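Issue: copy button drops trailing tokens. Both records pasted manually instead:
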Amino acid sequence: MSAADATADTTASGYAASNVSARAWVRAARASGIALPTLQADLRNQQQALDSSLTEAVRTEMPALLEISKSVSSTEGQLRTLCAQLEAHRSSAAEVAEGIGSRLQEFEAAFEERAALHQLSDQIRLLQRLAEALRNLEALLSAAPSPHIRDAAAMGASDASAASAASAALEADALRLLRASSECSRLLLLKRRTAEMPAAQRVANRIDEARLALLGQLCAALEAVMRARVRPLASGDRAAADDAVPDSQARLVGALLWAFGEAEAEAELVQWVRSQWVAPRLVPKLQAAAADPAASLHSLAAVLLAFVEGPEFAPLARADAAAAAAAAAPAAAGGRALVSTSAVQNGGAALPPLAAMAPAHLVCAGPWTEW
């Protein structure tokens, strides 16, 4: 190979470099002194080699390129179909979400309406129970015996059959009042629970009137039972006073005392005992004792103690003590002690009405102190 050919090959190989500049290559070729025809021939040879190499590469890779083109075309169609399906699904999902949202609002409104209906139903049931308790109480109060029956029972009877009938009348009256007081207790509880309801407010006066009527009948019945078979004793002995109180009378007095408690009328009971029972009987005795020239505070206190332990107060004291003992030791009394509604609301202490307000002797001490 001549020096010119070697130089041309070197120049051509330099042209084949990836980073060659055409202008720089021409300048270098001219500076090397290579003839232009030689460079042209070399470039033609390079072009032919590259053409044949490119043709062979295309011929070899064309089937793979065709397969790729076909697969891309089919995949593009599938992708377009999938995009259309996704768009349709998105539209249907939006419609379903809108429907679910509207149904959710309907459900929430229905649940709110259901809660309001439940509350209204509870209120209606309370009002029905209130009306039922009021009707029952008024019906029991309307069945009160005539006053002359109580007076006859209180005055006593000459024979055993009449005495038995009088005792039965008093007992039937006490049982009726016990049922009435139970209805009154239920009525007062329902009244407090329905205090904010307009329908309950409209019958509030009837409830108060029914309770006042019950208290009046309880006072009348208690007076009749207290007056029944009360006889003076030769001595002020407490044991003799207890013997003078029949068990039936003490039981009826205890039942009526508890009826006062069920009606939440402990204060009214104490007031009646002090003003209507104790004072009319104790004050004349105190006045008579005070009129004695030898009267002293000791003698007046003796009159008070004699009255407390005497037959006129013994039924109250005995019934109240028995109820207090049963409340303090229900197991010893043979079962669970009777607990009134008012007692439960006042801490669950099952105290009889008088003991809940004041000891029995202090009930008597009130009129003595006022006198």
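Record 2 (pasted manually too):
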Amino acid sequence: MPAQSNLSALPRQELALAVVEGEGAVKNTIGSQLLGDLPVSYRNAHYIKATLGGSLGLRHIGATKYVRAMGTKYERATATLSDGSLTVTPRGLEISVPREMTLDYKNIFDALAFFSGRFGTEIGALTKEYLIAQTLFSASAYVLGSATNSGVAYTAANRDTSGTSGMNPIQDIIASARRVRANGEVADTVVMSGPVWERVSTCQNTLQFARGTFGPIQEVTPELFLKALGAYGIKQVLVGDNYINTAADGATPSLTQVWSNTYILVCKAGMSTANQTEGSLVPSLTGLGATVFWEGFDGTGNGTLSPVESKFDFQGGGGYYVETYPSWETESEIIRIKMSHNPTITNNRAGDIIATQYS
């Protein structure tokens, strides 16, 4: 019989470390590179829109009707401007941290700091990424109104087939960029999920196009793939590879991709910019649109709320607010996360969707 069979009697070091599941999983989010942050002071904001039709964009006067005979009037067109509104979507969540937990781990583990950090940097970031993915990966959101099927379905079998029978994502993307250009915009970005990228980067036609039939063996990275597309105006290839937990609170985790395998998006990325278009006295917004958020959506900025115990702005003005306050009824500290981000497509001509037929 072993000298020590009762493992619970063995000496141990107390709390040598803290194990945190999911640590580091919220990295390399891509949403902000597609719909840049646009802070607003009120829940609703007004914008002016110069459409191609109304503002006489991309017009020419080479037609015969523009030729003026001596003593006659010039051909005349009327310029118009349209407008729209941007609206934020306030949302939030609270978690109760019992005083007993705080006292149990006193001087060992700061539960308030841990959950405040998790709320402010993880839940906020994943929520924003999810909302942007849901907005952009929608075929009906763009001027064409539907997705265009890839030339060949993105299956494992077609990945390993070359020539016209194999999947050819580069040709699909070039054709999609042409559709965007035909809508009056210039695509500069390609977006896809992690699993789709794995299939795209390892398919036979990509390997032959990107590195050549007789080129040296090398991995097709987003940078190498981008080099193959650079001549067609593409400046960045973004791979969305985050997961979210869709299970109920406290239940066994159920992880789901944020970015779907259903589509590839080819677009002109939207960014709010301080640059002013000639004639405009306000900042101009280029590309698809922006992620609008309410700068004043915090406890200290709302006079109807009681002063909070503490407040953290984890993005330096980026709109994720974490507040704490005591609940005397339950002897707990309440942590509240608030955000108001609303990804908005303001120019549906600046994107085109490819249906990958992934399986």
